[in-house]
Structures are given as C-alpha cells and as structure tokens.
Fold:
Amino acid sequence: MSDLHPAAATGFASGADTYAKGRPDYPAALSTWLREALRLGPGRAVADLGAGTGKFTGLVAATGADVTAVEPVDAMRARLAASLPGVAALAGSAEAIPLPDGSLDALVCVQAFHWFSTPAALAEIRRVLKVGGRFGLVWNVRDEAAP
Structure:
C-alpha cells in the first residue's frame, strides 16, 4: 500500500512471526466491552483495521459478529488468515478501506491508530460505518508495577 508508513512496511513485513510471538495477548475482559459498548454479536458487521497478525481479531470473532480484518502488510495478513480461517482478511489501509459505504456496525483499531490518525483516515472510517456505528480504539499498556 503506497500510504503505509515506510517504517511499518519494512518492519512488519520482515517480522510478522516475531511480532505474533512478542505482542502480548489482550485481556478476556475486553469481550464484555466488545459486546456491550460496541454492540457486537451475531448479525453485526465489524472490521478490525490494521489487524496485524490477528491477536485481537480472535476476540472480535468470538462475539459471533461478521468480522473483516483489514491489513496492509502481506506477511501480517497471511499469518492472520492462517490462524483465523473464518475471518475475511483483506488488503487495505485506513485511507482505503476495501468495504462499501455504510457497511459496518463497528470498526476497531488496536495498537495501530497512531500510524494513521489523520483527517483522511477518519473520513474513510466514517464512510464505512453505518449511521450510529461504533468506533473502538484499544491499546495495551505495560504495567510498570509488575515485574
């Protein structure tokens, strides 16, 4: 993808396996947030934007929603597709989401929003969300108090 930051394109393409092993998992408690705050469940459509290797996508899929992962880096997307065969994994970026207008009930972005927090990306996110759709952002934060 031409709009992908060069550091992301190089680092993530060459290190998908390392990324998958080193990135921490997400707390199971986020399942409640996905269902309640984002209203995910059967019959709802959601995209995981910048989905990487699918570390969070599995939690999203567990809600029963129809999940589409959007990931610009081929190596990351291939790893996601191999580990989550029930999830549609599409090439795309925050500025070019390969989904129709108003097709999503929710869109999540986990650990990636800093790569594309621009007016163009927000306009594209708005385009694919239905009226009243939800946009959820998630970050893992290291607990410095724990060894």
